[in-house]
Specification:
Blueprint lengths: L2 E12 L2 E12 L3 E6 L5 H8 L7 E6 L2 E2 L5 H6 L2 E3 L12 H9 L7 H6 L2 H20 L15 H13 L5 E5 L7 H17 L3 E5 L3 H7 L2 E6 L2 E6 L1 H5 L2 H8 L6
Parallel strand pairs: 3-8, 3-9, 6-7, 7-8
Antiparallel strand pairs: 1-2, 1-4, 4-5, 9-10
Helix pairs in contact: 3-5, 3-6, 5-6
Length: about 260
């Protein structure tokens, strides 16, 4: 497998406060990675840099051999790096299907004039977007709720809807910021199975932040652990589980893992 994305000594400061210091990582194609650490460790700042929301103060981000360090979020997303956020960002008054169609429309195949006049090209593309959206809803087991208002879904289903929306945009790399937050154990276990399924089905690379160690350890092939803005350990789940620095900084007693 080749390297899909590489972060080289990426740092981010806010008015002199260092949030992330010299973060480096290599994400190979079609693998699942975890990013763990206590609150304030810098995890979300890393995701924000990789997705273009924040520009690194220093360092480089290389994606498919191209330096994307200064790219804006929309350009990063169109290149195939899609993300979710800690807080749900759905269009609550739209239907479940409409939310996912928005993801599919990222790669718009018609012009403004086509859309204004509802030309044949517009109609063909909209049909394709709807088909793509329904396919993604089926993958996350929400196709039966396509015409339901998004806000009426249970919380765990809304989380799955967010993932369906980014899948509809044909990603190569998905960045998931605490996807299991607020879920009960059964919902978390179902989320693990769903992520593993779509990752294999669509040949995705996944990087997720998560505080639920069962999710991390059951899902991820390689894990980066952060504390106070720096990577303190990296390795397989077994290596991270037994790393003294990780145990001291984050995991606590081994029985918690």
């Amino acid at each position: 497998m080749s390297i899909l994305l590489q972060a080289e000594n990426c740092s981010k400061s806010f008015k002199g406060l260092v949030a992330v210091k010299n973060f480096s990582a290599e994400l190979e194609e079609e693998h699942i990675y975890g990013l763990i650490g206590t609150n304030g460790a810098g995890k979300t700042t890393v995701i924000n840099m990789l997705s273009g929301v924040l520009a690194p103060t220093s360092g480089k981000i290389i994606y498919q051999g191209t330096d994307i360090t200064s790219w804006k979020p929309d350009r990063v997303a169109k290149a195939g790096i899609l993300r979710t956020y800690q807080n749900l960002r759905l269009f609550n008054k739209m239907t479940v299907l409409e939310n996912v169609i928005i993801g599919a429309q990222m790669h718009n195949g018609y012009s403004f004039t086509d859309g204004l006049l509802h030309t044949k090209r517009y109609g063909m593309n909209e049909k394709q977007y709807k088909e793509k959206a329904m396919e993604m809803l089926h993958e996350v087991r929400l196709d039966a709720y396509a015409d339901v208002q998004a806000s009426s879904l249970p919380y765990g289903s809304q989380r799955r809807l967010e993932i369906a929306r980014i899948l509809a945009a044909n990603p190569k790399l998905i960045l998931l910021d605490e996807p299991a937050a607020g879920m009960n154990p059964q919902e978390s276990a179902e989320l693990v199975q769903m992520i593993r399924h779509v990752q294999k089905t669509y040949h995705l690379t996944v990087l997720l932040i998560e505080h639920d160690m069962k999710v991390i350890m059951n899902l991820c092939e390689y894990i980066y652990s952060m504390a106070q803005g720096e990577v303190i350990a990296k390795g397989t789940p077994e290596e991270i589980r037994n790393d003294p620095k990780v145990i001291a900084a984050y995991l606590g007693r081994r029985a918690n893992v």
